[in-house]
Write a structure and sequence with these properties.
A four-stranded parallel beta sheet has the order 2-3-1-4, with helices on both faces. The chain contains six helices and four strands. By secondary structure, the protein is an alpha/beta fold. The protein has two domains: about 50 residues, no CATH class; about 100 residues, Rossmann fold, CATH 3.40.50. The longest helix has 13 residues. The protein starts with a helix and ends with a helix. Helices cover about 35% and strands about 10% of the residues. It is globular, with a radius of gyration of 18 Å. InterPro entries: Helicase_C-like, P-loop_NTPase. It holds the Pfam family Helicase_C. It comes from Asterophora parasitica.
Amino acid sequence: MRRDVQEIFRATPHHKQVMMFSATLAKEIRATCKKFMANPLEIFVDDETKLTLHGLQQHYVKLEEAGKNRKLNDLLDTLEFNQVVIFVKSVARAIELDKLLVSCNFPSISIHSGLQQEERINRYTAFKAFEKRILVATDIFGRGIDVERVNIVINYDCPPDADSYLHRVG
């Protein structure tokens, strides 16, 4: 479990109620989570095999690496969108793609683990306030984030697993 979660736990009163919620929770994380709780109760809303995102239209295009930038540019020029989140696999890729989009006059910003937490929060706040319409992000942005105006999510790079995909598009 991340050190910051442990620090928060230790800084709070000894007698407290602890609840954790997640659309997905890896089996190896469950045991760690239980260390923070007394008599934990797990509630499963649905069987993992039935997990779908209702009302979501999904499309995919299989491309060679060399064709991704051109296709992304075409999509952003063609699609009508409020805000878009584009997920990539690395910090370097996020920086590179954001620079490319800005050079093509797209209102883009990036969020990734290469930024200090304060800067990530500032960029998230700017995006949520509709100051930028395109966000290039690594999976650091995939969990627990809600931006009401986002109506398109693009997986520029495929997520590593089904849980990551669910958090990205959900």
